[in-house]
Amino acid sequence: MRNAYVQEYLRQIVLSLPDAPGCYQYLDASGIVIYVGKAKNLKRRVSSYFNKEQISAKTRVLVSKIRDIKYVVVKTEEDALLLENNLIKRYKPRYNVLLKDDKTYPSIAVTNEYLPRIFKTRRRTRGATYFGPYSHVPTMYALLDLCRELYQPRPCKTIMTQEGVESGKYEVCLDYHIHRCKAPCIGRQTHDEYLRNIAACCDILKGNTAKVAQAMKEEMQSLAAELRFEEAQAVKEKYDLIENFRARSEVVPGLRQDLDVFNIISEENVAFINFLHVTEGCINQAFTFEYKKKLDESDEELLRLGIIEMRGRGLGGAKEIVLPFPVALPEEYATVTVPLKGEKKKLLDLSALNVKQYKFDRLKQAEKLDPSQKNMRLMKEIQQQLALPTPPLRIELFDNSNIQGEDAVAACVVFERLKPCKKDYRKYIIKTVQGPDDYASMAEVVYRRYKRLKEENGTLPNLIIADGGKGQMEIIRKVVEDELELNIPIAGLAKNDRHKTNELLFGFPPQSIGLKPESQLFRMLSAMQEEVHRFAISFHREKRSARQTASELDNIPGIGPKLRTALLQKFKSVKRIKEAPLEDLQSVLGAARGQKIFDALHASAPE
Length: 607
What we know:
The protein has helices spanning 4-16, 42-48, 57-64, 77-91, 137-151, 162-166, 174-177, 191-206, 209-225, 229-249, 299-312, 343-369, 372-386, 438-455, 470-483, 520-553, 561-571, 574-579, 582-589, 591-601, and strands at 22-27, 33-39, 68-73, 98-100, 107-111, 118-121, 128-131, 259-266, 270-279, 282-292, 320-322, 335-337, 394-403, 406-416, 419-420, 426-429, 463-466, 490-495, 501-506, 511-513. It is of the alpha+beta class and 607 residues long.
């Protein structure tokens, strides 16, 4: 808790803040910057943090740690945006959103050498111009291949100087002979022509493919007019290459303006943002990244940070930004458009598709590194779908098994964090029900199960799933709530006419929960249902087999449990015991007992 001196000190700083745009920094007792923010009006914005009625619980934690406030006044809101971004990168404050940037995304580098090179890289240093990063790597390779096919920039890594070229220091290499390079290092391609080709490559990497194609078309027509048809044909082949590339990459043919497109998916603790830069209807820059939330930041705040981040990297820069909802940006920064239909809406939908795919990929990567994350995510999904008070860490399922009421049994399987907990599986022989009555059998087993857990203070489940529809759910509810006075959520997995699970039911009266059959959650619930089926049927088979075996051997005098086991181990079945010769039985039982058992087994056999 802050003492009165600190509170008064901070109050005096807030009172002296100017009514001007700028950035503010909050420092803790150690003098470390713990939060950086920007404001149109510094005094009004900082004052809001100390109004306890208007801030969230997370923000109150931040405010409790503030021991000093620093600020910088700037001329415009745009300056404040840029300064905030720079300060966050410099100080990495604890309570600011964390940009989880995957540094492994590759970029394309164009070096600033006498004979520039073009290549893929994952590191950014001085001495080059960079395009990207490219989250979709095939797009990057397609651009590199196009530049190589059109202009053959030198592929070697040798650092070449003007003095070296002019003095004849370098020698022609294999790349020249296989037409991957035009040998500017020995003067077979002029320096001016090489630089023009590199500039054309940069135009392609910027997305200005239409400009490059138009220049080629004009050159081709000029050469043809001069009757230089072979040279014109060579230019035409390059023109066809770039036109084919444009046809593949053009997503909005009718759009002839530069656009920056952003979309966002936000969750409780993280947000994913996709960025597309569109030039002449073609996407030439695409990037997706994520922010880890710290103080319940709104989607508008996060999207604004994402826009500033991309432009700070030199990506985008179009005068118009397409967004899914309005975001407050300085008027001189860009025009914001929120389309409801048309070509720009198609681009916004494409951006949404990209951000959903990125989120899915990140989840898959995380689940490979830590498989428990997948189960936790599915438990939260169950909690959300069924509006449960807590995630269902323990789930129990029941199933009955009998044939026309014979050998009636039931089974209970238990899942802890969606993993089978086999030590807690239970088998039940139905004791009070005569005939094939599934409802009465279910009521008996559920009552026995939870009456015992209640009496022994055992661990109760967070969710019970009935293998059946509304009828089974109601039977379980009557036992659990009305008879045992327990409060346990109950769901049901209902089957269709083809005896396939097709819906999840919840609530009373039960309502169908909309789950897609191809979803991970539906497949997981179906697997749990199959597990309780397997366990119940296995137990039923054991009981039926034991009864059938007992009916054949237990009625023969002189055969007890040990002897019966020995015979079955030797002959494998009752049928083989009856078919065995006397000598074989005597080898197991002895001469006298073997004769006695042989006579008993064949007493009713026809003569």
